[in-house]
Write a structure and sequence with these properties.
Largest sheet: none
Order of helices and strands: HHHHHHHHH
Distance between the termini: 18 Å
Helix content: over 70%
Length: about 240
Amino acid sequence: YHIVSISGLHMVLAAGLIFWFVRAGLCLSTTLAARWPVKKIAAGAAMVGASAYCVFSGAEVATVRSLVMTLVMLGAILVDRPALSMRNLAWAALLVLAREPDALLGPSFQMSFGAVAALIAFARLAQPVLDREDGAGPVLRLARKAGGTLLGLLGTTFVASLATGPFAAYHFQSANPYGLLGNALALPLVSLVVMPAAVVGMVAYPFGLDRWVWELMGFAVAQVSAGSHWVEGLAGSHV
């Protein structure tokens, strides 16, 4: 459900793509890159794009909550603050609660903010290890990069599952012991194939070049569905 709901994952991908394209486009000019604050300009453009995406998608409660968190993180870039910090998360929580105080007792608020808080804490612990350089060759560095990406995906999924598990057990009276396995199978396809294909497909659609994109996207969605059904069929998948 967290994959198909328009909330954190989709909002981050939308804002991240806009941020990356604007910053990369401005950096193509050495003059602009040297004289203009391209990172802040990209953050501003991502804020506008994320807001438009929220309105376009219907501005549901979970989407608005994700938008507030995204705007706080991007706003931190504009004032030269770290984007991912507990302080920014606290500001996002205060803004969400000012808009809908009753959300504090709901599973959506508790699970989303609990997961983000755990991931920020995990990132602080893992960053020194990821940034370590020991003079290794390019092949070894590439292998470490690929291994670090895989371990990072599994690690963040595990941390988020641990953070949200108690809230899910309390509110829904159930637990998913294979949630880590299901997310590990689904999220790489969703993040690296499905969502980028959706963006490319929308761009290619006016030119009639979108058929192969939708076929690729459909294949990835089918694999996500197949993996989900396989995990669901394992003994003890629902407790």
